[in-house]
Amino acid sequence: MSLSAQILKIAKAAKKVSYQMALVSTSEKNRALLLMANALEAQQSYLIKENAKDLSVASKANYSKALIDRLTLNPKRISAMADGLRETAKLKDPVGQLLETIKRPNGLLIKKIRVPLGVVGIIYESRPNVTADCAALCLKSGNAAILKGGREAIFSNMAIFKVLKSALKKTKIPLDALQLIESTDRAAVHELLKLDTHLDVIVPRGGEDLIRFVAENSSIPVIKHFQGICHVYVHAKADLEMAYEIVMNAKLQKPGVCNAMETLLVDRTVAKKFLPSMIADLQRASCEIRGDAVTRTIVKGLKQATEKDWRTEYLDLILSVRVVENLSQAIEHINTYGSHHSDTIVTKDKSRAQKFLDAIDSACVYVNASTRFTDGFEFGFGAEVGISTDKLHVRGPMALDGLTSYKYEIYGNGQIRQ
Amino acid sequence: MSLSAQILKIAKAAKKVSYQMALVSTSEKNRALLLMANALEAQQSYLIKENAKDLSVASKANYSKALIDRLTLNPKRISAMADGLRETAKLKDPVGQLLETIKRPNGLLIKKIRVPLGVVGIIYESRPNVTADCAALCLKSGNAAILKGGREAIFSNMAIFKVLKSALKKTKIPLDALQLIESTDRAAVHELLKLDTHLDVIVPRGGEDLIRFVAENSSIPVIKHFQGICHVYVHAKADLEMAYEIVMNAKLQKPGVCNAMETLLVDRTVAKKFLPSMIADLQRASCEIRGDAVTRTIVKGLKQATEKDWRTEYLDLILSVRVVENLSQAIEHINTYGSHHSDTIVTKDKSRAQKFLDAIDSACVYVNASTRFTDGFEFGFGAEVGISTDKLHVRGPMALDGLTSYKYEIYGNGQIRQ
């Protein structure tokens, strides 16, 4: 069978059973999730054996240590993956939720009801646990899932998929509701992106290149989980000790994630007082600082931050620093150069704080807190598919609700339109 | 300036002022809408004079009578357009609405707030009133709008746009928040669809070709207002008199619109009783009937409905009719061939009705009512951008709320992540 025929077959099968998936009871979905969790733990040695094949390819290919670490499965990580499924079983089932009731003068009763999206395609890279996480979230939200992992984790993904499917066989959930594309050819993704009558949404999770490729080539609606160029703005009326703690946390606690800070903005009136020790302490923690002209007059010997720095998601121990004239300039900087992900102001002035909240066009806008809280668990939503940087459908943490749509159920007694 | 530079300039200007638009007060937006309404009425003769240029081109090009009618502006229609703006001024401002409040154990207070999408691109055909309607809806929802009408209405659209802008000059609303693309070259649309850093959403309104072109060429998120292949299913336990009225209404009251019925499904047990007089009366109303094999044994002389008919939006006095074995077959037919727009069951059996509501994957699923109610005004939402056949972001009538996103405003007192 040609690649294109294979992908079409997978998509058709998923679409067909998606109508059944929408009707599966909460208890049956939860039972499936628990069986899947148990199966992952029971098949631990098989999973580690298959994972070793990926690791062997990776080490021969001289992949980075960080990438190899992300790829690695061990008993602890397999248990964590299983526990993730058990946690998803505990989450409230979004399907069937009554969102709104409207009574019309003509007697029509309109109920807005939460329903699954249908068929969800998820394209991701490196970490094999995403296969189990996304399968679980799609299942719980009543969707059929088509998963396409990265080439580097193909043996691990196939093994996890096989174990999950073996558990599904013991349930009433249609097996075709969970699909994995085994081809490692990028052409497979290209084929998938054309199937807009079979897939309802595509979620790319990975590097900028992957996301751009998907956004530019898909005729299926896409929810992008793009970069996080997050800012901390230290306002003139900031509690500078609080600002210090927030900056340290937002930059250093986990620099490689999308909600870490990439640019620090400091109000001119506090820059001389705040920056010297702040920068010294960041440098002591191995963080490279790139400053604008004013910053470089306050702290000597810094590399110059260029226009490109303001637009860069380092995901690393690098921070760009700019001294701004006032709140308006901070807002303009963030809206111009940021990625509309997560930004925070540190200030004791409530009205300035509210102006920042209103004017910053980002998914998550904070006052006096670290940007690192942009996360499904931290918001109380549970596991997430990712952090959406889109404005349509779902913005910020994309959890179970983000995998649903709604429909209107309308009850009449013979109404016709005049 | 090249076409591509012109389009980029428009998009950049719209993006730039979109941040201001998000902060404009409700009273200022309403004042602008009323000034725009008055200006349209005051400039009635200018609008009619410009419209005559489009009509002259149309009549030379031998456009259909229906198209020429849709293009025509007259005093009554101009007043209706102005009244539409006045109605939009009366609608509740969606911006700033508090959607959810979350308190976290660490003391973070998370508010989910409705915000504008940013820059909305609307690409539409023929009726010039869409220029005013869409400008008004985007303005009221705090968005910057980029409008691109059809070539056939270019003089009318430019005239309406000019009048609206002249009214905007008397307000605090930034003029660049309303943009019209004057080029009638399809290349202009193509250029626009690439500008995903400047536009937040594209809404195509028009024929299937236009919508496909946009969906396939846009890297900006698209909300499609696609076809309506709507069904009425007359169940075994239907009140047949009610079914008769609903069928007549859904097919005949306005056959050229997306929520009109295109296919009638009738349960085998009532087909012989129901179909002969139903079909005769539809035929008397000049409606052509195309039947499946069983229908054609019950009523002789009908044209045969083919597989293609089940997938066709006639938008005309044509109806395809199929006799189905039972509810399950009706559901399968509708989910397979329909366009997931609006479908209705006529039945006195409440549990069968609920099964239909649950299993049909459409934006609007009705029991005992005409499909013709799928409409923003009929739902109580007010004016609409269209009826979304997408499942992401907005499904069914797309009114003011559909032109908004949300953001999380998070209040802390120094929280950092552990």
Commentary on this structure:
- 2 copies of one chain form a homodimer.
- Chain A is an alpha/beta fold and 418 residues long.
- The first copy, chain A, is built from 15 helices and 16 strands.
- Chain A has helices at residues 3-21, 26-42, 44-60, 65-71, 75-90, 129-140, 154-168, 186-192, 208-217, 240-252, 268-284, 293-298, 307-310, 327-337, 350-359, and strands at residues 98-103, 109-116, 119-124, 144-148, 178-180, 201-205, 230-234, 261-267, 288-291, 303-304, 318-324, 342-346, 364-369, 386-388, 396-398, 404-415.
- A 7-stranded parallel sheet of chain A has the order 10-9-11-8-7-12-13, sandwiched between helices.
- In chain A, helix 2 (26-42) runs antiparallel to helix 5 (75-90) and helix 5 packs parallel to helix 6 (129-140).
- Chains A and B meet through helix 10, helix 15, strand 13 and strand 16 of A and helix 10, helix 15, strand 13 and strand 16 of B.
